[in-house]
Amino acid sequence: MTPRQTRHRDRVDAARPRGIPEATVARLPVYLRALHALQDRGVATVSSEELAAAAGVNSAKLRKDLSHLGSYGTRGVGYEVEYLVYQISRELGLTQDWVVAIIGLGNLGRALAGYGGFASRGFRVAGLLDADERIVGQEISGLSVQHIDRLEDVIGEHGVSIAVIATPAGAAQGVCDRVVAAGVTSVLNFAPVVLSVPEWVDVRKVDLSIELQILAFHEQRKAGGPDGASGLNGRPRGLNGSPPEPVQYVEAAE
C-alpha cells in the first residue's frame, strides 16, 4: 500500500465513528442539488417539508439524514439554505478541489469531458487519456488527449484523486489496476463490467443499460406485468410485448 493509499484508509477509518449511513450519504448530493436550486432563486430559508419535496423524499427521512450532520433546523423557520449548503458540501468533501482524470474518450468520455458542472461542484478535470492514436492529441474542452501510456505520469503530475473509467469493458480492469497502483483510491466506473479493487479503494459504478432495464421492469408492471397478467389491451403479453403463442394441451396416453 502506498503512503497515499494509507492516508486515504486512515481518513475512512477516522470517519466511521460518525456513523453516517451509506443511504444517507447517497442522498446528500440530492439535497445539495435542491439547495443550489433554492439559492439560485434567492431563497434564504426552507422548511423540511419543502426541501424533502424538492429532493423526492419524505420529511422525516430528510430530518433524520440532516441530524447526522448536526443540523436540526429551527422550529417554525426551517433550515438556513446557505449554511446547509456549506454543511453538506463540507461533509461531502466539496470545500476543496478534487482532481479528476477521464480515461476513454469515446462518445461517453467526450460527453463527460465536456460537462460544465464539474468545476462548479469542486471537481477539476486535469487529464484526458485514450489508447486510440486517432484520438490522442485532439483537444476537448481545453485539454489535449494524451496517450494511455502516460497514465501514471498524468496521475503523478496533477495529483489525480478520482479516475473516471469510460473504456470498453475489456480494457477497464487493466486500466483500473494501473490507476490503483499509481495511488488513486476513488474510481467512477462507466464501463459495463464489475471491477475488482483492494478494500481501501472506493468504486462507484454507473451502468446506463441497467437503469434502462429497471425502467423497463416498471413499464412492464404498469402494463400488467409478466406471468400471464393482462396488458393494456386486457390480453397477456409475450416477452417481446406481443401476445404469447397459445398453449396446446395433449392428454397423456393410458
TrEMBL record:
<keyword id="KW-0804">Transcription</keyword>
<keyword id="KW-0238">DNA-binding</keyword>
<comment type="function">
    <text>Modulates transcription in response to changes in cellular NADH/NAD(+) redox state.</text>
</comment>
<dbReference type="InterPro" id="IPR036388">
    <property type="entry name" value="WH-like_DNA-bd_sf"/>
</dbReference>
<dbReference type="InterPro" id="IPR003781">
    <property type="entry name" value="CoA-bd"/>
</dbReference>
<feature type="DNA-binding region" description="H-T-H motif">
    <location>
        <begin position="30"/>
        <end position="69"/>
    </location>
</feature>
<keyword id="KW-0678">Repressor</keyword>
<keyword id="KW-0805">Transcription regulation</keyword>
<keyword id="KW-0963">Cytoplasm</keyword>
<dbReference type="Pfam" id="PF06971">
    <property type="entry name" value="Put_DNA-bind_N"/>
</dbReference>
<comment type="similarity">
    <text>Belongs to the transcriptional regulatory Rex family.</text>
</comment>
<feature type="region of interest" description="Disordered">
    <location>
        <begin position="222"/>
        <end position="254"/>
    </location>
</feature>
<protein>
    <recommendedName>
        <fullName>Redox-sensing transcriptional repressor Rex</fullName>
    </recommendedName>
</protein>
<comment type="subunit">
    <text>Homodimer.</text>
</comment>
<dbReference type="InterPro" id="IPR022876">
    <property type="entry name" value="Tscrpt_rep_Rex"/>
</dbReference>
<dbReference type="InterPro" id="IPR036291">
    <property type="entry name" value="NAD(P)-bd_dom_sf"/>
</dbReference>
<feature type="binding site">
    <location>
        <begin position="104"/>
        <end position="109"/>
    </location>
    <ligand>
        <name>NAD(+)</name>
    </ligand>
</feature>
<dbReference type="InterPro" id="IPR009718">
    <property type="entry name" value="Rex_DNA-bd_C_dom"/>
</dbReference>
<dbReference type="Pfam" id="PF02629">
    <property type="entry name" value="CoA_binding"/>
</dbReference>
<dbReference type="InterPro" id="IPR058236">
    <property type="entry name" value="Rex_actinobacterial-type"/>
</dbReference>
<feature type="domain" description="CoA-binding">
    <location>
        <begin position="93"/>
        <end position="194"/>
    </location>
</feature>
<keyword id="KW-0520">NAD</keyword>
<dbReference type="InterPro" id="IPR036390">
    <property type="entry name" value="WH_DNA-bd_sf"/>
</dbReference>
